[in-house]
Write a structure and sequence with these properties.
2 copies of one chain form a homodimer. Chain A has helices at 10-17, 21-29, 36-48, 55-62, 86-101, 136-143, 167-180, 196-212, 227-239, 252-264, 284-287, 299-314, and strands at 67-72, 105-109, 125-129, 147-151, 161-165, 186-189, 217-219, 246-249, 274-279, 293-296, 322-325, 328-330. By secondary structure, chain A is α/β, with parallel strands linked by helices. In chain A, α11 (284-287) links the parallel β9 and β10. The longest helix of chain A is centred in the middle third of the chain and has 17 residues, at 196-212. The first copy, chain A, starts with 9 loop residues before the first helix and ends in a 9-residue tail after the last strand. Chain A binds a DNA duplex through residues 9-11, 19-23, 25-26, 29, 31-35, 38, 53-63.
Chain lengths: 339, 339
Amino acid sequence: MGTNRTRVGIKEVAAAAGVSVTTVSHALNNKGRLPEATRQRVRAIADQLGYKANATARNLVVGRTGLIGLVVSQHGGPPFAVTDFAYFGQLMLAASTAAIGEGYALVLAPADGALAPQGGIAVDGAIIVDPVRDDPLVGALARAGITVVTTGRMLGDDRSCWVDNDHIAGTRAVLDHLQRSGAERIALMTSPLEISYTFDVERAYREWCARARVEPLVKAPELGLSERAGYAAAGELLSLPEPPDAIFATYDRLAYGTLLAAEARGVRVPEDLLLATTATESQAPEQARPALTTLNLHPAEIGRAAASLLIALLDDEEPARHVVVPHRVVARSSTRRRR
Amino acid sequence: MGTNRTRVGIKEVAAAAGVSVTTVSHALNNKGRLPEATRQRVRAIADQLGYKANATARNLVVGRTGLIGLVVSQHGGPPFAVTDFAYFGQLMLAASTAAIGEGYALVLAPADGALAPQGGIAVDGAIIVDPVRDDPLVGALARAGITVVTTGRMLGDDRSCWVDNDHIAGTRAVLDHLQRSGAERIALMTSPLEISYTFDVERAYREWCARARVEPLVKAPELGLSERAGYAAAGELLSLPEPPDAIFATYDRLAYGTLLAAEARGVRVPEDLLLATTATESQAPEQARPALTTLNLHPAEIGRAAASLLIALLDDEEPARHVVVPHRVVARSSTRRRR
DNA sequence: CTCATTTGGAAAGACGTTTTTGCACTTCCT
DNA sequence: AGGAAGTGCAAAAACGTCTTTCCAAATGAG
């Protein structure tokens, strides 16, 4: 079996194939002029020997670092802790996996410049997750010559490359669904964060209400975006003189809190209240009681797409600068149609 | 201001200092024989020029990748989604920051071998978060010659290097605190996961009960470790013929659910029920109503320590193989002393 | 004063790739 | 038949750093 202590290099492959290292390199990278037969033969020998090009050496000669940074915008700190959201974890893991698959390594960076020339780590490009309006980081990185892709658009400056859902369409789809299920007074529970997500959703909601000639009812929980915050906010909504008969919550944890609040005060879902929210890849919505209707945003797909887009940009392919990841409304018990 | 298109290299520094590149390298890395005066002068010029050694070139010559992997053990899939826990996010971010500070890049890897020779990305070492009992990944990596540090010990094989809290002592501290606050019947709400954390806590709890001559009461929520799961589990505990008058929840989300369950059924905290749980760096415990007493585990410190330990190992310093990160009990309203 | 030893620093090789250049040999055209 | 164009591959120069040698000058000892 003998796993050699030292990895097999291009020289060993060349020797085994009876050609020069040049030829091996050309064969493996589809460069140079080589008859197909030679390419095949060299490749066969290479993976028979288990050859994997040393990424460091390759990076050195092609003049890149092989690293891409992923930074989550600060959003002004504490009340909103990025680590509290499964969304980010899934996005990050998918982006990392995609990057590895394309020969890059993704490194998670704190928002306060661990990237950028001075002091930090050198990267070829960066993914910025949910930048706030006019996020200074985006500009700083761009000025340092680092290619940037954002997930979610940056409000105020749309020149960047981004990947995002079509939240306008998603929101409409949810509202239409709620209406078809019998809702007459739909409240939006969302956050005041200045990111394109909340911006789009609230705009779509207000436009939808205007077109449907109903009064919008927007509730922003205090205390962040936790279950407790949702519990409290739902409590207030349900105590209104004219309480909503449906709620669309823009963060899933708000919805879970809402569910508990309803349960606690004897409000039945879906009989008295329809409830819909957004979802990651989690199984939580179907395990909730009742199972929750969700607008699936596919954060993993967003992460994957962001990494791919960034790498395409770095490799000088000329990809479409914007990627829209499809959403999907999954109807479950929490919006079961009323008689 | 002229940011040069091309970074300043060791050659420019050498030229500016009027010495050879050798001398610059020696001065910057504390190698070779150089009078202190020369070292100082070269260093001064180097950072005046903003010189940063090209990590790729350095890695190539010293024969490392400069990458360390962080993988979170699968824990047997879905019910337990790692991305649901702020704990992991904080640990990871801190580990990444620490790694960057020491010249390494940390890459997040999926549990199914994106590391290891065949197929994946080459790393110098890996951090494995909360390995399950006899986690196959640990062995596989070790066999591939990759240095491994775990956070939390691996049950079944204690030969590895790890960083962990002293959960035995932490649990005792919490139980003692609850007892001093007047608790007479303390329930433990925990998970059946086979990781050292839950193992230690449950053992400490049972031993503590034995010594205090009280019957242990352990409740493992179904439906994972969410607020809803905690809500349901707490409901069951409180419906018992002899309900507990205090609960220690090993995951914070269980505690938040417990709080809502108590509120929903008119059980007052802390008057009727004392409640304590563990905490990350989040502000949630103090924002809860009532504010939650917590055992702070300092995941960020765990991550930082794990990265530092791994890097010390890689750099052939001979660090202590185990690091214990201190915990701290923070008493808040949820365990306010009974009259 | 001479020889051995230490000290300061330079030159050059190495790390493992990619890429450019160029050589020899065919094939094709006229 | 003679030159032009095309083909297959090798040699060698990078990439930017660290590290090993090695030489010259300075210092010390006898």
